[in-house]
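ligand=DP6
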Amino acid sequence: MLIEQFNTYLIDSELQDGSVSWQSPSNIALVKYWGKKDGQIPANTSVSFTLNNCKTITELSFSKKENNNQFSFEIFLDNEAKPEFSPKIETFFKRIESYVPFLKDYHFIIKTENTFPHSSGIASSASGMSALALCVMSIEKLHHPDMPEDYFNKKASFLARLGSGSACRSIEGDLVVWGTHPEIEGSSDLFGVKFPYAVHQNFKNYNDTILLVDKGEKQVSSTVGHNLMHNHPFALKRFDQAQENITKIKSVLQSGDLEEFIKIVESEALTLHAMMMTSLPYFILMKPNTLQIINKIWEFRTKTKLPVCFTLDAGANVHVLYPEACTDQVLEFIKTELVAYCQNGHYICDKIGFGAKKL
Ligand code: DP6
């Protein structure tokens, strides 16, 4: 299926060579995307905070080549050749080719680096794929200099989605919705949109401290994980629940109701893991220290009444979320009580950010 809105009618361009660079952040979902249909279409709507410090920086150099019958690229991570990433990039290029038909005209050198440690167990696909999609869009813009910014961002998100679903939520900030929802104006299955309503002060500069419980390779790739939702006994119920949680979180984000925010966010994290525990094959991606941290957060919250909560990705690391107003107390708590459960005592302080930047 070709989405006409994003077709590029190419001109035989004079553009011979050059290079473009972008930095693009990771994001953390509050209502989770877990399960998809063909063509990277999400089974339910998701919403995320864009992060600020965890990001990928990518430089894409291009030079016109003789023939245009195949893709040609080299990829480097921290200046080291990474031929093992080629299949993922090849798949990405194949998926986006019809929307950016100049891809086969050039040889590309992709140089990329992350601001977070490689083996942190933090997914780099959202920041990595969004950075690459933005670089591709910058080349398209060199062909079409008067491209409006709104179209640029939308199409960058559209392309990023075809690389990795969650990547479409990393182009802009500070809150991004992906997936059509009747109560979110402008929402689409094809790209992420900025949360289109005024957000309460409580959620400005929200913190996300990422506790690195297990820095190993992901035990279950997201592709395998999403596939587990096909024929999953609870899938339909789960997709409905996510849609309802979007309705709830929409009003929470406007009203600033932190108690309700915590309920939705923690329930979403646990539901994601419950889906993995109840699929076939089944997985437990939390580690004993993940549970220790969750229990400590609950104790701390009961004792102090501070609105701190957790969320999880498809792994053992814990994202500790809290408003700017309680930064000092929560950081002190993390240092004295939670760091002991992190691998080598490692954690990353991040907070809500405002999207990708051209370099
Ligand atoms: C648990 O975006 O990594 O982080 O589309 O297959 O690349 P692909 O999946 P991916 O899935 C992310 C799943 C999640 C939840 C979320 O970010 O919404």
